[in-house]
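Suppose you are handed a protein chain with no further information: no name, no annotation, nothing but its sequence. What can you learn? This example shows the usual starting point.
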Amino acid sequence: MIQPQELHELQHEYAALFDIDGNLDRLIKKIELLSYVNPLNIEKEKHHFFSSKYAKDPVFRYPKLKFNPYKLHRLFFSQRLERIDDEDIRGLYKEIVYYYSNMVQCIETIGQKRRFHYNSLRVYGSPTEKDVENARFILHFASEPITGDMEKIYTPEEAKEYFEDFAQQYDFPLQIKFSTHIAADAMVSNASQTLFIKRNVKFSKNQLLTLANHEIGVHLVTTYNAMGQPLKVFSNGFPKNVETQEGLAVFSEYMSGALTLKRLKELAYRVLASDSLIKGYTFSDTFDLIHNQYKLNRNDAFAITLRAHRGGGFTKDRLYLSGLRKIYKRYLKEESMEPLLTGKVSLDYESAIRSLAKKSLVSKNRHTNLAYKQNNNLNKTLDFILNNLK
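A reasonable first move is to predict its three-dimensional structure. Written in structure tokens, the prediction is:
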């Protein structure tokens, strides 16, 4: 973590940069997309959908906006980036402005079907043909036998205790809250440094290990590392950071021995669900693809379909598998993961991080991912699959 005197000297030397970085920080804090895109009435609409025998698409409600989108756009583009002397840093911040402006448009159009979907594509992209081929390749493998570790018997309260115990090996506070308004069974809010646990679900032993290494071992590690950086952009997130961050998180599952073929297939289903949006599939169509054609049980199929169709068509989930492939390739080259744990950063901007580091604008990580220290994966099928992803 940077010391106060050092930070003061950097703020003096790079006054314009810190001014703009601080301005953007105040604006970006208002727009955590996941807090708006998760429906408020998931369980009610799930019941209606099942009661209709999968024929009537859910009608989701979303949280109301707490900011003025037009005003926020104007404030983003009012930043005088020409004040930043360094050309590379100025270019980085220009892309940051465009990235978060697109994010505002995403939030502004939540629930507006195609408009939201197109805005989502601008932020998260769409599955490539290679992504879809990788997903289908994974789904060709026969499912593994169900073990006792996969049985969902742990309550949210027991999950909370597990995560608290797990986090003791990390030197940062763990704040946990329960929620019924999240699409995932657990997720980290970067803005509030909080791990949210879904209230109305049960967890398996393997799932707890998976979530702990994913959410705490990566998402909270990068959250707290970012808080020790001189620039706020490390906390708010570089453009295209989701693919890298989720790739690191799933790779943490792999290294800890938590990753299963079932989980890998879940990521493959997410790619196919995201791909179905481009084809114009309705919620029912995507559910039919996952549940009836690929034979995934209806609860898991609903969860995957929900994640893809929330907001009107959300393609973020397609990035987990491609992110894992890129991070695994990096691991095979024996390249350090530490630069990618400095905050919410992206592989695409690794050269920018190195440039910032040369100017003392990047601090050494205070926290690291403990699972990365030793490969505890014993599943040879996973190794074969990961080695053969295109």
